[in-house]
Task: structure prediction
Amino acid sequence: MVTQSWNRRHIISLEDFQPAEYDTVLQTAVSFQEVLSRRTKKVPTLQGQVVANLFFESSTRTRSSFELAAKRLSADTLNFAASTSSLTKGETILDTAKTYLAMGTDMMVIRHREAGVPQAIADEMDRLQSRVGVLNAGDGLHEHPSQALLDLFTLCTTLDAEKPRLSLLAGKKIAIVGDILHSRVARSNIWSLTASGAEVHLAAPPTLLPKLFANYSIPRGMEGWEDGHSDRQLFLHWDLEPALRNADFVMTLRLQKERMTQHLLPSLREYHQRFGITSDRLKHCHPEVKVLHPGPVNRGVEISSELMDNPKFSLISQQVTSGVAVRMALLYLMGSGKT
Ligand code: CP
Result:
């Protein structure tokens, strides 16, 4: 099992992830993919450790795959639902986290609709000098690192199933299409995919793709382009076709209707006509193009139902399957030092 290039206690963002760390996650996930193909899909790696899933916002894929990943590693799991917790009686989020700490939790997986909550809990755990690791499972519009890492694994295993590595994506064209403004998945993917040397093309209506996204390819501390030269390649398009032209991969994003407090689109029908991904639209792409979507999907809005279910193009089910192995890798890398 690969453990070099890992000394993170928390995973909150991919902004400062290094190529060696991506490769460590990818190679560790390959090992766990092999475990998941066995008849007995369980290893004793995290026996005795406690993983708490603290989801303050709805989730199907992330919550279930983290729970399954922890169980496959033989950890004990605690599942928390905000609606039936003591939050409803006025307990604060930090006190909730400290309650789980007091029960002996080793790792906390946190989703919240507000950006910054996983970081605040990680800071509190460090202040208390606990050894708890915090994993961001999606915070507001900020980031969703485990989703981007499973997307990376899905892309790289398409190119080399046995030795997925970041450098495989160098020179590939990847289009990310849809509600980029509200997407934490897009923000995390921009960090990982531009770090790989891929050309990343964002496409959306101007209301869902403000110009400030051009800065997203520059990690903090590298704002001075002349001094801190960055080879990251990020392009913005307010039309779909230039983003799709010869693309090797197309990542579609959910139109986040629940986050649209302003009227950012004329209608869903018009959105689909201009930015919806269909088999017909893929004719602009590389002949072997593959399509991804983090889910949940609005069928017939950001992607046609027919394309979503077409195994020739769609990697959507593979993304979900990859999610378990990748989340096992993350829990293993964060937890193995404690066993
Ligand atoms: N992709 C994703 O985060 O899905 P869930 O909201 O179902 O976890």
